[in-house]
């Protein structure tokens, strides 16, 4: 006998539809899973066997072959347990499942038959919707996540026994009674609702014009999403909310951060300890605009695939991600990796901010893997059977000390730098020239000269208003292009939308010659000047905008001065 169910697996951050085919044949009792399964899938045999028996069904004493199609795609995880169990029960005529041809089955089985949630449900359900599926059955713990995809009927269960027919005996339906049971179905056809898909029965064939027995039973499993925001105490929330008005002085740094947020430009802050570098960057998400609908789905899919979507009851992620990995992170942790690669920190920061605190403390080999995502906005990881591509368009924000001891150029009387020139050069050499070239803004954060009676400080609301105005200008300018920010300009689009007049072009060429900058730095200065012009509401880039953009290449100027 032959039967088929439908499940899915993750391939990178995308869901892939998998057909779970069941064949019951005469022979010695043996169960084989084929189709390039990993260890977790091969172990599903014992989980399914125990769950089926503990729920009152019988496990077939036949030769059971389970094929996961397509067979040339390597599969991993425990999400196939539910599809395998229901495939065996329907093929052995112990259960009749409605919507088998258009229902996605995802879930891990415990030995007692209860359903455990799995990771990556969101991209799997999205793949099912693209494939024309109309319904999905998941563990209750994954129901809120599955319901984030519109147009899908979500059914949620906590135990395999919830799928039993009304009035069914604990021992299940015997195969010999199957014909009598189907006859009773035809007698009650006029009283049962008919779903727009066939029903799988014991023989594995579709029964046309027969109402599904479990149609009414599945209705009580239907999940109705109720999204609600987390209740907070407004007074306490106001006290705990981080705002740029808390940072004394450093208005020039706030101006630089406003420019970085307005165009999603990479930025590094360099200064002695205690000058507020980390404080300034940690407040950066507060001035960025919220994610659009398409960006929200894209970011939420990545977090779901990585198993980091903690609460799906509040809907899709709307705040831009802020990732701050420790400096001991490996290259695989930063970029992604594994047998079937999973997204790393650069992909988790997609459409948001990747904060590297104390940049020179990271391994140089780890930092060098940032070159491709900073240039291309994506990460490609190749394996023997396939190449995986993860999105990685993020704002790189870094902080660093000017030297090993941290007090170079401090200007204070109590703390002076004790580093030799060779030690300073060795410290800064941890950041290679090609990587530094990809960082648009390099800003000094000096120690404030006056701690008391500082002038009015820019607040996050004021900075957010400026960023929002610039973002609206860019959205209108690039509405016909697949980009959203000035930092994404390149090639012909850069020459068209960031055009320099003759005076500005001559100024930039003179600066490039004097500082010895690369052509990559040339393009990044122009993109930065375009953002500064947008903040000023100017349609064209002027020499003043270009001069301000060049001022943010502090490390380039220092290297040239030292040479």
Automatic annotation (TrEMBL):
<dbReference type="InterPro" id="IPR045006">
    <property type="entry name" value="CHLI-like"/>
</dbReference>
<comment type="similarity">
    <text>Belongs to the Mg-chelatase subunits D/I family. ComM subfamily.</text>
</comment>
<protein>
    <submittedName>
        <fullName>Competence protein ComM</fullName>
    </submittedName>
</protein>
<dbReference type="Pfam" id="PF13541">
    <property type="entry name" value="ChlI"/>
</dbReference>
<dbReference type="InterPro" id="IPR003593">
    <property type="entry name" value="AAA+_ATPase"/>
</dbReference>
<feature type="domain" description="AAA+ ATPase">
    <location>
        <begin position="263"/>
        <end position="449"/>
    </location>
</feature>
<dbReference type="InterPro" id="IPR004482">
    <property type="entry name" value="Mg_chelat-rel"/>
</dbReference>
<dbReference type="InterPro" id="IPR000523">
    <property type="entry name" value="Mg_chelatse_chII-like_cat_dom"/>
</dbReference>
<dbReference type="InterPro" id="IPR025158">
    <property type="entry name" value="Mg_chelat-rel_C"/>
</dbReference>
<dbReference type="InterPro" id="IPR014721">
    <property type="entry name" value="Ribsml_uS5_D2-typ_fold_subgr"/>
</dbReference>
<dbReference type="Pfam" id="PF01078">
    <property type="entry name" value="Mg_chelatase"/>
</dbReference>
<dbReference type="Pfam" id="PF13335">
    <property type="entry name" value="Mg_chelatase_C"/>
</dbReference>
<dbReference type="InterPro" id="IPR027417">
    <property type="entry name" value="P-loop_NTPase"/>
</dbReference>
<dbReference type="InterPro" id="IPR020568">
    <property type="entry name" value="Ribosomal_Su5_D2-typ_SF"/>
</dbReference>
């Amino acid at each position: 006998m032959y039967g088929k169910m439908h499940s899915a697996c993750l391939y990178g951050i995308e869901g892939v539809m998998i057909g779970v085919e069941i064949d019951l044949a005469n022979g010695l009792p043996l169960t084989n899973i084929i189709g390039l399964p990993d260890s977790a899938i091969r172990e599903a045999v014992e989980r399914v066997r125990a769950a089926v028996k503990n729920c009152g069904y019988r496990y077939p004493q036949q030769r059971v072959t389970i094929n996961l199609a397509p067979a040339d795609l390597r599969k991993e995880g425990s999400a196939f347990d539910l599809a395998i169990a229901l495939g065996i029960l329907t093929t052995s005529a112990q259960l009749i499942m409605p919507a088998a041809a258009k229902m996605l089955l995802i879930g891990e089985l415990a030995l007692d038959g209860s359903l455990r949630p799995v990771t990556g449900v969101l991209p799997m359900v999205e793949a099912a919707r693209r494939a024309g599926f109309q319904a999905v059955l998941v563990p209750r713990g994954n129901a809120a996540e599955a319901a984030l995809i519109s147009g899908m009927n979500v059914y949620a269960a906590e135990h395999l026994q919830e799928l039993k027919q009304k009035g069914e005996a604990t021992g299940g339906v015997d195969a010999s009674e199957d014909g009598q049971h189907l006859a009773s179905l035809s007698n009650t056809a006029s009283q049962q609702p008919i779903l727009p898909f066939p029903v799988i029965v014991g023989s594995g064939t579709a029964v046309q014009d027969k109402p599904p027995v479990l149609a009414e039973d599945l209705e009580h499993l239907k999940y109705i999403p109720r999204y609600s925001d987390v209740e907070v105490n407004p007074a306490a929330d106001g006290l705990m909310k981080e705002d740029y008005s808390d940072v004394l002085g450093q208005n020039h740094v706030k101006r630089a951060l406003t420019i970085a947020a307005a165009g999603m430009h990479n930025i590094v802050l360099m200064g002695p300890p205690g000058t507020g570098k980390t404080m300034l960057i940690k407040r950066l998400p507060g001035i960025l605009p919220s994610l659009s609908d398409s960006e929200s789905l894209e970011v939420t899919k990545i977090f779901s695939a990585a198993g980091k979507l903690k609460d799906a009851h509040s809907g899709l992620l709307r705040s831009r991600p802020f990732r701050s990995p420790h400096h001991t992170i490996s290259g695989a942790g930063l970029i992604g990796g594994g047998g079937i690669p999973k997204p790393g920190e650069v992909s988790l920061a997609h459409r948001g901010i990747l904060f590297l605190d104390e940049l020179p403390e990271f391994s140089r080999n780890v930092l060098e893997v940032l070159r491709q995502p900073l240039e291309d906005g994506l990460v490609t990881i190749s394996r023997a059977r396939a190449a995986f591509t993860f999105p990685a368009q993020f704002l790189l924000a870094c902080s660093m000390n000017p030297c090993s001891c941290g007090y170079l150029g401090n200007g204070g009387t109590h703390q002076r730098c004790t580093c030799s020139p060779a030690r300073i050069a060795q410290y800064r050499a941890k950041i290679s020239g090609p990587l530094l070239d990809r960082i648009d803004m390099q800003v000094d954060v000096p120690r404030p000269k006056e701690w008391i009676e500082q002038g009015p400080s820019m607040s996050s609301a004021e900075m957010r208003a400026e960023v929002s105005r610039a973002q609206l200008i860019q959205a209108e300018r690039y509405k016909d292009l697949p980009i959203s920010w000035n930092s994404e300009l390149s090639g012909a689009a850069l020459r068209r939308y960031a055009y320099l007049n003759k005076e500005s072009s001559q100024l930039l060429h003179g600066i490039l010659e004097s500082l010895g900058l690369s052509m990559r730095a040339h393009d990044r200065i122009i993109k930065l000047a375009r953002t500064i012009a947008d903040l000023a509401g100017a349609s064209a880039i002027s020499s003043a905008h270009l001069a301000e953009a060049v001022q943010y290449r502090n490390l380039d100027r220092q290297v040239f001065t030292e040479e």
